[in-house]
Specification:
By secondary structure, the protein is mostly helical. 69% of the residues lie in helices and 1% in strands. The chain has a domain at 28-244. It contains 13 helices and two strands.
Length: 322
């Protein structure tokens, strides 16, 4: 493969998203903005799974916490905080990070939990929190919360609600910022430490590095990104429900990242866009059998392409290795 090909393809992918408004109407642009929100969510899991080697089966916990906090703030459930969307997004990010920090302390503190045990514990946590959310009346119980206000401008004007084009560029801009932040982090000495932990955690600990703190910080950062995606989701879809915080969505994001390529951040985003778009197409064409077809495709892709569909062609580190 040509050394510069991953760079050229990454730039082409970014330009395609940047120029997408030129060829899409307002409705399709809104759909693409929603897909980018899922891409941001996938980015959070790719960072913790692909870069650190932590397979989290409960990533939707942080996404759901962000979505619920955004809904509660903008619906005025916390009068002392106001109903600002900026405050909602900020608190959604911080609250999800706080939950990730507490869960990370439990997972990585002491002797720590790794591998399949960590996956099982996070899966169980997602199930338990989904059930608890469904029985908590303050956050709407099983019906969730409806009527979450759409995104608005922070300054006064005649129509304060963002158009489809404005919403798209807002979500696109956030996605680009978070992507470059995480990409930069993976290329620092801290990123090297995370890669060492992924390669051999015990050896890294033996060399004197504080593995627990590094994993905890990475987990917290991943949770904050997922919470930000959840906050954007709540404003775009106008509702939140316990399904956002549970096992089903946690499994979906695993599929997006695995199909795209868990070891490459941009590949995870591309995987989320492809799978979500493909699910819509299959559900239209195959009716009730679309889920079966999606599962079979996922199995084939994981077996045939273990690095994902885009893991090799978008791997920017391949040029440095060559």
């Amino acid at each position: 493969m040509l050394p510069r090909l991953p760079i050229l393809l990454s730039i082409a992918f970014g330009l395609a998203l940047l120029l997408a408004p030129l060829g899409l109407d307002d409705w399709r642009l809104s759909q693409l903005a929603q897909l980018l929100t899922y891409g941001l969510f996938a980015l959070s899991l790719s960072f913790i799974w692909g870069q650190v080697g932590i397979l989290c089966f409960g990533q939707a916990i942080f996404f759901g916490v962000g979505a619920y906090v955004m809904a509660l703030v903008t619906l005025g459930k916390f009068p002392m905080l106001g109903d600002s969307q900026l405050m909602g997004l900020l608190l959604a990010t911080l609250a999800a990070g706080g939950v990730a920090f507490v869960l990370g302390l439990f997972l990585f503190g002491g002797r720590g939990i790794t591998g399949a045990h960590l996956a099982v514990v996070t899966l169980c946590a997602a199930v338990v929190i989904e059930i608890a959310a469904g029985r908590w009346a303050f956050i709407g119980g099983y019906n969730g919360l409806c009527g979450v206000p759409p995104l608005t401008t922070p300054w006064p004007r005649e129509d304060i609600y963002l158009s489809g084009l404005e919403t798209y560029f807002l979500v696109f801009g956030i996605l680009v910022l978070v992507y470059f932040l995480l990409l930069w982090l993976t290329q620092t000495s801290f990123g090297t430490l995370l890669a060492a932990i992924r390669s051999n955690e015990e050896r890294t600990r033996f060399l004197g590095f504080d593995v627990t703190i590094a994993k905890l910080f990475a987990f917290l950062l991943s949770g904050m990104v997922a919470g930000l995606a959840g906050g954007l989701f709540a404003a775009q879809f106008g509702f939140v429900s316990p399904q956002l915080i549970g096992f089903a969505l946690s499994t979906e994001v695993l599929i997006w990242v695995a199909v795209g390529g868990r070891g490459v951040l941009l590949a995870a985003v591309a995987g989320a866009l492809l799978v979500r778009w493909g699910e819509d197409q299959l559900s239209d064409q195959l009716g009730q059998y679309w889920l079966l077809a999606t599962g079979l495709l996922f199995i084939v892709i994981v077996v045939v392409a273990p690095r994902g569909l885009f893991g090799r062609v978008l791997d920017l580190s391949a040029r440095r290795k060559s």
